[in-house]
Amino acid sequence: MRKLRLEELGRIDADDYKKQAKIPVVVVLDSVRSALNVGSIFRTCDAFLVEKLILCGFTAIPPHKEITKTAIGATESVSWVHFESATDAAKLLIRDGYTLLGIEQTDASIALENFIPEVSSKYALVFGNEVNGISDDLLPMLDSAIEIRQYGTKHSLNVSVCAGIVIHKFASFHLSLYISIT
Questions:
Q1: What are the pLDDT digits (tens) for 28-79?
Q2: Whole domain around residue 113: which residue ranges?
Q3: Percent of the chain at pLDDT exceeding 70
Q4: Which CATH number goes with the domain that contains 74?
Q5: pTM for the full model?
Q6: In 69-86, which positions are buried (b, 16+ CB within 10 angstroms) versus exposed (e)?
């Protein structure tokens, strides 16, 4: 066994990436305070062909030194936009037919392993602030909440780790459909 060199991975450039079909998933960051987390989520969105990243509230936006450090160029490939308010972004997404899923621990959350995406649905995955979670004014706008079950002493995951797990589930679902069709 040997590790593959970068040139053996067959990665495409940012221009070709932008032309690729994307999974019907938008990621919304609601006042995520760490620019390093934002950069990491950019990179995850690139890895799994997310349609768009929506940065809301005081979430850092590119160009930003810490985003650049962890995104490693994904700010050039992933489509993104900034909204002053996550509720304004949610209104637009609802109008455009997205199902809003908050990734949050609530009294009505569905465990991630029990959530089965619908083939014909477009999803907006909403991730909240590292301390306070999703804004209280945004909660009533969600169609549902999903949480990742945890079994240790801590009650939460880092937002970028959480995003990686959830986005991977949606990408695996949608990309397996694509692969089975082609």
A1: 999 999 999 999 999 999 999 999 999 999 999 999 999 999 999 999 999 9
A2: 21-148+156-181
A3: 97
A4: 3.40.1280.10
A5: 0.95
A6: ebbeebbebbebeebeeb
